[in-house]
Amino acid sequence: MQLKWESFYYNLKRDFKLFIFVWLYLNLLRVISLIMMKSYAGDINLNDILLTIYYGARISLKTAGILMLFTFIFVTLVGWLINKHLDKLRLGLSAVFLFILNFLFVAKYFYYREFHTNFNEMVFNAVNDDVKALFYTMIEQYHLLECIIIIILFTAIVVYILKKYLAWQWIKKSFKFEKSLVFKISAIVFTLVFALFVRFGASFSYAKSIH
Q1: Helix axis angle, 131-140 relative to 144-167, nearest 10°?
Q2: Is residue 206 a part of any domain in this protein?
Q3: CB within 8 A of 83, min separation 6: which ones?
Q4: Residue 138: in which H helix or E strand, if any?
Q5: 167-184 residues labelled b (16+ CB within 10 A) or e (exposed)
Q6: Number of domains in the chain
Q7: Which of 10, 34, 47, 64 could be bridged to 23 by S-S, CB 3.0 to 4.6 A?
Q8: What is the pLDDT of residues 125-177, one digit of tens each?
Q9: Is residue 208 assigned to a domain?
Q10: Alpha-carbon distance 37 to 164, whole Å?
């Protein structure tokens, strides 16, 4: 039973480290997006920018939480059942997630330049258009293939950094109290409370949640 706890605790710590990495990465992309889109900003002040970053950071808690939920279920819980660390599986899921984030970041840039708005219901209207013509337009006008290659290469760099980050131990020494029943219960309760905090975007109720 002790070995299973050590496996669970090992994976749980890396889930939290992954969450922090993805959350910070999302906020970095948001700042880059604000810089790239400054010509579309219009008449705004510093307070508007800070509010954008603040509310965006709260929303990003939910986005990063989605990946953590997947790794918790398919890596941490599975690793607890079979008593394995499954680091490669966590990294693989993270790589797919980061590729999607980077792809959407680039797609949103071109979409905003064209329609001056974020993704909306117009995206779904594309299925009613000539898909073949739309595909060729994306290749010829928006350089889809070149963008995908660049996104893959950039994602590979980010995943490499993530791999090094996850392997880095904040505190190398292990403590005896980490194996105590009180600590185990506290770790599980903290995880549940943290999940609730993330679910409501830095809040603990739907009334104060950010949507």
Answers
A1: 70
A2: no
A3: 3, 4, 7
A4: helix 131-140
A5: eeeeeeeeeeeeeeeeee
A6: 1
A7: 64
A8: 655 555 666 666 677 676 778 889 999 999 999 999 999 999 988 766 667 78
A9: no
A10: 32
